[in-house]
Specification:
Layout (H helix, E strand, L loop, with lengths): L8 E9 L2 E9 L5 E8 L5 H18 L4 H8 L14 H13 L4
Antiparallel strand pairs: 1-2, 2-3
């Protein structure tokens, strides 16, 4: 794994999902490449919060190992759970949608 730069450039999105608000920070390096994803579920101390933190760490590790964001999006997007709907997707689909927004040409 590469050493994390001291400075990354990013933005944080708030995505409403079936578990509540998911805050997703998408950080890019100086070349504009997505290199780090940090996501926090707005409910402290829950299993969902821990699982979402784990998703972010794993996605960041995959990016560091050279995985392309579009493959990560394809893998995660559309995963649903018992409480998800068209207006409130699962946390993992909301995360994939945020990553997708970060790699669109206008971002």
């Amino acid at each position: 794994m590469t050493k994390r730069p001291e400075i990354l450039y990013g933005k944080t999105l708030r995505k409403k999902c079936n578990c509540g608000n998911l805050y997703i920070t998408l950080n890019k390096n100086e070349k504009g490449e997505l290199v780090e994803v940090i996501n926090i579920l707005g409910k402290g101390g829950t299993c969902g919060k821990a699982v979402n933190e784990g998703y972010g760490r794993l996605i960041s590790m995959l990016l560091d190992l050279g995985e392309k964001p579009d493959r990560i999006i394809k893998t995660l997007k559309g995963i649903s759970c018992i409480g998800s709907s068209e207006t409130k997707p699962s946390c993992i689909t909301a995360l994939a949608e945020a990553i997708e927004l970060s790699i669109e040409p206008h971002n």
